[in-house]
């Protein structure tokens, strides 16, 4: 009997998800005043899902405002509808977003499931009486939403949005622009379809998106081939001067100070993805980037196979994330202290690191 328990649990989740979708479907029968939001420092999955969902809802006749806790990165400025996105920064924007939230009859929270992820907007969300929709794939969701579409097995929130529109019976409304936004999130969250989170469904959706005429090669270039000459030089500097390889722990880590970021005129987002280079070394299991920010030292972790970095991030660096991609932060520490702390914990993970095939 017990062996059927996991199947039964999954069935319950399925039923729960279906009832949430049905409830949402009837809720959306009447025009609503909707605010769509996502997490702080929105990435392509956050913006892609918010824009795609917003475009869809507008097509359905709803009034839609998209409000993000912080500005969108420049390399996503080409996304359809991005000019309608307002960041919760500065008094005028804060007032406007506060008003939208107060008048909202539905607040959609995409690509996050902990209210702390919206930073300064957290209180607005907590105080709002409006029903909330959560669409997300991160672990350990907080229980705040009326309608929940949550699946940690989904490769991207954009994947969930695509499926959600289909489940709401509106697949025919997925046009070129909606598909383009969804592709951006799907491609980036799967690491161009190479992360282990990539599912057959991710590829199916990508195929359908190509059928809709989206130039996926262009999306890839718009997102990834945007480096400045200086950023490329900065990368070279980090790889030659600031990267340490510890073969005995199958670990690579990099450290970047604020002064170095200034020296190379590094912009927000410039260091994004640099940590992944560490995993390109044969047999490396974990790569860590330690970077000095104005408000503390941040850590990015990447790993392969079953070696889980979210537990390391959670237990030692006040963070969390996915099994193979996580982050942490120490507010009151220097770069050197954080580096020492990382080196100090490595021995306790040695067996696990060496065991990965
Ligand atoms: Mn995501």
Q: Which terms summarize this structure?
A:
single chain; about 350 residues; alpha/beta; 6-stranded mixed beta sheet; 12 strands; binds manganese (II) ion
What features would you describe in this structure?
The strands form two sheets. A six-stranded parallel sheet has the order 3-2-1-4-5-6, sandwiched between helices. A six-stranded mixed sheet has the order 7-8-9-10-12-11. The two termini are 34 Å apart. A hairpin with a 2-residue loop joins strand 9 (286-293) and strand 10 (296-303). The mean pLDDT is 94. The relative contact order is 0.09. The protein is an alpha/beta fold and 357 residues long. It is built from twelve helices and twelve strands. The longest helix has 23 residues, at 5-27. The structure holds manganese (II) ion. Manganese (II) ion binds at residues 45, 111, 137, 156-157, 189.
Short description:
The chain is of the alpha/beta class and 357 residues long.
């Amino acid at each position: 009997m017990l062996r059927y328990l996991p199947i039964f649990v999954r069935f319950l989740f399925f039923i729960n998800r279906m009832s949430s979708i049905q409830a949402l479907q009837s809720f959306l029968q009447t025009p609503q005043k909707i605010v769509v939001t996502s997490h702080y420092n929105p990435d392509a999955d956050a913006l892609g899902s918010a824009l795609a969902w917003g475009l869809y809802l507008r097509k359905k006749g709803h009034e839609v405002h998209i409000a993000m806790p912080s500005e969108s990165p420049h390399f996503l400025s080409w996304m359809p509808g991005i000019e309608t996105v307002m960041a919760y920064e500065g008094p005028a924007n804060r007032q406007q977003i506060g008003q939208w939230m107060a008048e909202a009859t539905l607040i959609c929270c995409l690509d996050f499931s902990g209210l702390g992820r919206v930073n300064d907007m957290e209180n607005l969300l907590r105080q709002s009486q409006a029903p909330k929709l959560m669409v997300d794939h991160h672990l350990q969701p907080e229980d705040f939403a009326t309608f929940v579409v949550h699946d940690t097995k989904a490769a991207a929130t954009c994947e969930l949005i695509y499926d959600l529109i289909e489940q709401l019976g509106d697949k025919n409304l997925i046009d070129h622009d909606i598909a383009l936004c969804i592709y951006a999130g799907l491609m980036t969250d799967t690491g161009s379809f190479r992360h282990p989170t990539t599912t057959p469904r991710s590829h199916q959706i990508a195929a359908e998106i190509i059928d809709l005429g989206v130039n996926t090669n262009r999306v890839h270039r718009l997102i990834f081939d945007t480096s400045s000459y200086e950023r490329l030089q900065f990368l070279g500097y980090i790889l030659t001067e600031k990267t340490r390889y510890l073969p005995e722990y199958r670990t690579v880590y990099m450290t970047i100070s604020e002064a170095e970021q200034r020296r190379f005129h590094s912009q927000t987002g410039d260091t994004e993805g640099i940590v992944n280079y560490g995993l390109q070394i044969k047999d490396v299991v974990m790569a860590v980037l330690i970077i000095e920010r104005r408000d503390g030292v941040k850590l990015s972790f990447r790993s392969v196979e079953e070696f889980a970095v979210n537990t390391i991030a959670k237990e030692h660096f006040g963070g969390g994330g996915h099994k193979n991609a996580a982050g942490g932060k120490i507010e009151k520490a220097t770069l050197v202290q954080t580096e020492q702390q990382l080196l100090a914990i490595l021995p306790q993970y040695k067996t696990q690191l060496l065991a990965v095939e």
